[in-house]
Task: structure prediction
Amino acid sequence: MSYFYCYDIHLFNFLTKKGFSFITKARHYKTNVLFSMYLKTPELSVAIDEWEATNH
Result:
């Protein structure tokens, strides 16, 4: 199993609007930065590619 860790609130909002559910939200143990963790799936990869193409 592979996971995707999202540290970008805008990407998090985009994925949420697309209907993706995160497994958990937590803070990085060294940096204390909030992240959400997703199960990496082909559908999630397509959505991330779409985000990168339109928002960066």
User: Anything to note?
Assistant: The chain has a mean pLDDT of 95. The chain has two helices and three strands.
